[in-house]
Amino acid sequence: MTYATLSDRASRGGGVQRSFDRARLAQWLIFIVTAALMLAPALPILLQVFVDRPLYADGWQFTLSNIGDIVQSERIGRIALTTGIFALFSVIIAEVLGIGAALLIGRTDLPGRQIMGDVLMWPLYLSHLIFALGWVVMYGPSGFVTQTIAQQTDGAPWNLYSIAGMSLVAGISQAPLAYLYCLYGAVRSVDSTLESAARTVGAGPLQVLRRVTLPLMVPSIITSSALNLVIAVETLSIPLFLARPARIDTLSTFLYAEGIAASNPNHGLVAASSLLLMLLVGSALVVQRILLRQGHRYETVKGKGSRPMVLSLGTLRWPLALLTGLILLVAVVVPIAGILLRAFTSFLSPLVPFTKVLTLANFEHLFGNPANLRAIGNTVQISLLSAALGTVLAVAVALVIQRSSFKFAGTLEALAYSPRVIPGMITGLGIFYAAIILPPMGWLRGNIGIMVVAYVMATLPLALGVIQPAIVQIGRDLDKAARTVGADWVSSMRLIMVPLLKPALLGSFILLFVFHLKSYIIAIFLIAPGLEIMGVTMLSLWTNGDVGELAAFATLQIVMIAVLLILSRLLFKVKIYD
Amino acid sequence: MTELVLKDVSRRYGTALAIDGINLSVTDGEFLTLLGPSGCGKSTTLSTIAGLDQPTGGRISFGEQVLVDAASGTFLPPEARGFGVVFQSYALWPHLSVEDNVGMALKLRKVPAAERRARIAQALELVELGSLAKRYPGELSGGQQQRVALARAIVFRPPLLLLDEPLSNLDAQLRQQARIWLKDIQQELGLTTIYVTHDQDEALAMSDRIVVMRGGKIVQLGTPQEIYRDPIHPFAASFIGNANLLAVTGSATSHVGPCDVTLGDGQVVRARTPLADLSAGAQLLAIRPHLIRCVPTDDASEIKVEFGPESYLGDHFEQEAHVAGSTIRLSIDTPQPRGAGRIWVRAQDAVVFGVDG
């Protein structure tokens, strides 16, 4: 063999030299883009809090009166209290349902658990707006089910338009999140030998669930509670649909009314109450941090390919299945069926037979309005663009955080996750302010660019949540090996990490796309004539009382999301929320 | 001569020192092994040479070129060093075929396609995997993956080859074959090689020189024969050849050679020391298990012991014996009856060290 002998030592190649440090440049660029994106909306809000008139007006002066107004206002105190109670109850409902479902569906021989698990996920795929609409159509004061019962019993059986009612709707629509966290965070991943060990020392199956499985779920419960709390605080459509008619306000409906619906918005007050909202959310996350400080106590060593033990329910099997099925039917299937029914009828009442009111008029209205068509087109464009850009930014940020020696990786991570503390409506508001006062953002005004920026920013943590765990799965030696054969950081990321991350990138893209498709909160402050999006258009259909057209729009959105999810499962084998 | 020189190289993680003032020079064409138990700093040392880890102190140079100098802040990234590295995990890229794994280095060096193909084929030929070029790493056995990893590390003709426990994931039989095969390739290419292992047999069989490491420091550096025959540190003696270590007392000596030591129970053993500055008092006596005899021998000290249980190991027995409150292991052909007995140790086989370090 004449592969290489001592004589050609001279011709041996050394390393690959580069004229400049491409890696540092790329890392700084990613850092600066992320920092600008995250800080641009936050800073103008802070500024607005301390200014006496809207940022876009001339001659503003610094003042503390906005904060003073908030602190002194009895109304805002009441609103904050309502928001707190609503958030608390909806989290409790969501967690109880989610934990129960995770144990029943993930651990027992409940008949039909597979399909029940799938149905339970529906509220997560759809927006609160659609879900709240379904509940109003079926269970509202003049809802189909309410009226049916009222006819028989002479009097309304319940009042959905109350704090209890909206807590229930929000709780059910957030239950899937609690379910997912408990299922994948604990029920499915707990090393089954931990449970077997409890069996060997004399614990029965139910005692194992109570003494071993449930305590190991504590971190998942805390994390999902914090997330659900944030979502409850920022949700708009549920309180807007269910509480406004009863003259109950939450911070989000207050912000909506003062900042959007009012003819002369008080921006100082709006900014100050957004700050209050951020404080609420921020303190929830701080509490989560403190609670999880003892996290190592719950760390479970994951056994390789361990099969979770299946708990036999015995004679309780069928009664429990029936009960679970009934809850899902009433809470999830009926409201969604209600939307579809309402979309194809002119009027939905137990007094009038369906056949008499069947119509396609709602869809004719929907497609007859060019603004609606524009909204659909815009939404698809914005969602595609934001999902693509968001995924690219997320993978770049995640690689710098996890796979580089970048000095400020910790700061970058904190920045990238900061949107978690900022409710979506406020992201939109901040971007709106930023576009007014920061000259380079001005050119984004009036086109879809401004929404894309807001969407990418608001959902960066969501995308990171998909990509970061995938990076952890890839051995560090793989990119180190690329460095040793001559790739610099940029090349080793491009040639090795990114191709290996393809499934995660696809998952992130689809998750973001679905999320943007149904999103409305972020865009509320950003829409303009010609720049409508589906969610906000639906919101104004509600405000105008066009429930039939709204149901048709909601049906269209449900179909779009369903098709997208089924396609991505079939074509790419991607299941989001896994 | 391109010589790799490490000068006072240290790596600190927080308060822990992974390596502590390593001084080493590796000459052209040499096969040098870093040997030690896990956590001794051998892999960290290799990483600092590869550029995968940045030392917190000291300086590493290769020929004229300074690779890293903590004092001046110089640091050459791994891609600019161009050393071939074989990882313990092999680190083959699962999304690339065997030939693309091997060819990555050439692609990055913008080698024209035709030459690239030829050199990939040559490298795969060398590791006897020419027929598997189109396969993916997931479709290869452990031994084949290890060969691909080697081909990938040498295809761009690096001036230095760094191997981090490359054989530790192979089964015992394959490991023996791979050892011979690896050494052949190294000699054929005349590659300067630094090899990290915790396996003393591998180190003794393959190396030109061995560096014995413990606790981030070099304990002894020498040829396999020197390390085995003349350990200068009790750790080197016990790690390589599994010497028994006994606590003894002795007087001070100022020169290498014969000396007497006293066991805890008062028995005196004639021995030798490789150290020129042995201080009086507590000392350590190292005796290899197979150099202990159970029949009277010329020029040997007789030691009274209590024989313990034996275990059968195929070609010999290993038996325990208790002496002066310590347990020693004997490697013998026929086990001795349990209970009181005697053993003989020649002065040249009983080596005395200080207790420090």
Automatic annotation (TrEMBL), chain A:
PROSITE patterns: ABC_TM1 (PS50928). GO terms for cellular component: plasma membrane. InterPro entries: MetI-like, MetI-like_sf. Residues 80-288, 376-571 form the ABC transmembrane type-1 domain. Keywords: Cell inner membrane, Cell membrane, Membrane, Transmembrane, Transmembrane helix, Transport. It is a multi-pass membrane protein. It comes from the Bacteria. The chain crosses the membrane at residues 28-51, 85-107, 119-140, 160-184, 216-242, 269-292, 318-341, 379-401, 421-438, 450-475, 495-515, 522-544, 550-572. One of its GO terms (biological process) is transmembrane transport. It is found in: Cell inner membrane; Cell membrane. Belongs to the binding-protein-dependent transport system permease family. This is ABC transmembrane type-1 domain-containing protein. It comes from Celeribacter baekdonensis B30. The lineage of its organism: Bacteria, Pseudomonadati, Pseudomonadota, Alphaproteobacteria, Rhodobacterales.
Automatic annotation (TrEMBL), chain B:
It comes from Celeribacter baekdonensis B30. SUPFAM superfamilies: P-loop containing nucleoside triphosphate hydrolases (SSF52540). It comes from the Bacteria. Keywords: ATP-binding, Nucleotide-binding, Transport. Residues 4-240 form the ABC transporter domain. One of its GO terms (molecular function) is ATP hydrolysis activity. PANTHER family: SPERMIDINE/PUTRESCINE IMPORT ATP-BINDING PROTEIN POTA, SPERMIDINE_PUTRESCINE IMPORT ATP-BINDING PROTEIN POTA. One of its GO terms (biological process) is quaternary ammonium group transport. This is ABC transporter domain-containing protein. Pfam families: ABC_tran.
